[in-house]
Write a structure and sequence with these properties.
By secondary structure, this protein is of the alpha+beta class. The protein contains two helices and three strands, in the order H-E-E-E-H.
Length: about 90
């Protein structure tokens, strides 16, 4: 689980690396064609759109992969990649 500030551990970074080596077949930026990407240090969790601000409910923890050339940021579901952040399934802790 990332630390209290959402920073991925070295162990989690290694899991992500293994997952991407296995699953990312055409590792090419969809914008600029670069093959150089960086894993962001932090896990993020976008908020569900609602008329009212709420920190409860369904959560989708994500990791970010950033193209080193153009900066496009690709978001991947952290649970699917093997980083649960203390959440075992979407919407549950």
């Amino acid at each position: 689980m990332p630390d209290v500030n959402g920073v991925l551990t070295q162990e989690e970074r290694a899991k992500v690396d293994i997952w991407f080596k296995k699953n990312w077949v055409n590792k090419k930026c969809p914008i600029c064609g670069s093959l150089q990407f960086t894993l962001a240090d932090h896990m993020i969790m976008p908020m569900i759109y609602s008329q009212y601000l709420s920190i409860n409910g369904v959560q989708y923890p994500q990791i970010m992969i950033i193209c080193q050339r153009c900066g496009i940021t690709l978001h991947f579901d952290a649970i699917a990649v093997g980083i649960d952040g203390g959440i075992t399934s979407h919407g549950q802790e």
